[in-house]
């Protein structure tokens, strides 16, 4: 890892669902749940040859593809429980006047919560059922059913509206039957049941880890703004942390997802209905989405719309943290991080197949060809493998690059809707890796080490951020070279492992222009110290004290007794609208308040006009440079349309 222009850049430890083994920060063990998922994976491996041949056979009627209609009827809303009772009527009236597009976007947010279970569906059933992802969002048609209405019950106060989802999958001729046997014939149907929160926003803030499926993610992967990446309505109360169960984070949730939704949000039971329809070229033309950039094999394309998502966040790292050992950060302590997403989409006409990895160090069957050739390197800190040649990036004008280490290449979502893109694949975990046609390998913005450490950057000048995929040609963007037995042929490279062993890569007949779509650059303007994504405007209709947006750094520092219970007397001026108060850490080393998210804050609450006692525990000493004993205040109006008022706090 390198420094340049005073910026420490690193990107490593990237998480992928159902495939990354780690024992960092929490004692986890492999129990019954782990064994069950291992067995399900084994079933997927056995179907490898069948899966890879999906594009070859033709349907009996000679159709070049298959069509599946998808529908759902549901209800979505805005929860007002955290809004002070005195202003709920006004808040409800404001939402009742929202345009249809507001509710359509909220409905889409609810539909996204089906993503995790559909993309990794094969792990929730016995062998015989595979992935069944929704089409790309551009094809989702949302129709509202009636006007929004306010519903007040014994538990919740909500503004709700009904809606219908209609969309259509376009895929290979044989894929429907292999994903879901009941879709193997024209007219066949399948209903996939879901329980959703009535309000899809602020799920993590309201229900904690109860609905978050952390199965084999590294610890601390769950991100409040990306709950759809983890949402699983079947998560239950578990007795102990597990790599294969829903929960790794301590303390473990004391409610099932269903109970947490009922008590803290309100829920809606619905189902996605999949119906196989007869082939129609006209319909296929209407729903076909996704470019094919080459017909000479696989081709990974940087997904610009994902890479262009970035945000600033602050995190504390203790000495000895894996992030320090693997050079994701320049030093321990509070760090200011520029987070961003990176994704690669296979826009070629063939699967990018990497093959088997002894990811769990079982030794079963001996080392794989990838292990023998050191394509992946073991991380002693994280207890799993890293693929060190996945990508590189740079921040600033300096041409120095640093390696982006991926855990593995998976097919984590289907971005294309085309005839040669199957609905399923064998690449759901790290034991067998690759990216299927039309699928994407995603690294979400909130995952550990998905960042650049910009703690010591002082410039306000926008800096170019560049991501280069597959810079060393270790991924075959074309057609792999095979020996007479059909096995990949490897060639030595100049790279060496930490132990000095030669790293070899699989030979490839690269497609013409394979590198042309592997690089993207755009300018990033860094926020000032003490500012973060929580101080940026809200853009999804979030309200109340739980939201992670629209807060203002008051630049007020209040000293308190480190580690001691503390009570402040806080006041809002008479006649002012209710205000949100969030109490955050204050860093002595950085000389600024920490713009904390709800889950990292000391307290978040709504204050009405007058005086209110606010109690919390004063930050304790973290290390020699961070003695604790100080807090920072961040405020905002409870309703984003109200005027901000000065919140004063003192002993």
Structural class: alpha+beta
* Total helical segments: 12
Shape: globular
CA-atom Rg in angstroms: 25 Å
Strand percentage, roughly? Answer: 25-35%
Percent range for helical residues? 10-25%
Which parts are unreliable, with pLDDT below 50 for 5 consecutive residues or more? Answer: 1-58, 399-403
Main sheet, how many strands, which sense, barrel? 6 strands, mixed
User: What is the assembly state of the chains in this entry?
Assistant: single chain
> How far do the termini sit from each other?
46 Å
Q: Based on DSSP secondary structure assignment, what is the total number of beta strands?
A: 34
Q: What number is the mean pLDDT?
A: 88
Secondary structure layout plus pairing:
Blueprint: E1 2-4, E2 7-9, E3 11-14, H1 32-46, H2 48-52, E4 66-79, H3 85-96, H4 100-112, H5 115-119, E5 141-152, E6 157-171, H6 175-179, E7 189-197, H7 203-207, H8 257-264, E8 267-277, H9 281-287, E9 300-302, H10 304-307, E10 310-317, H11 322-325, E11 333-340, E12 342-346, E13 352-356, H12 369-372, E14 377-379, E15 384-395, E16 402-406, E17 413-414, E18 432-435, E19 439-443, E20 451-453, E21 463-469, E22 478-480, E23 490-496, E24 502-506, E25 508-510, E26 519-524, E27 552-559, E28 565-572, E29 579-587, E30 592-593, E31 603-607, E32 610-617, E33 630-637, E34 648-650
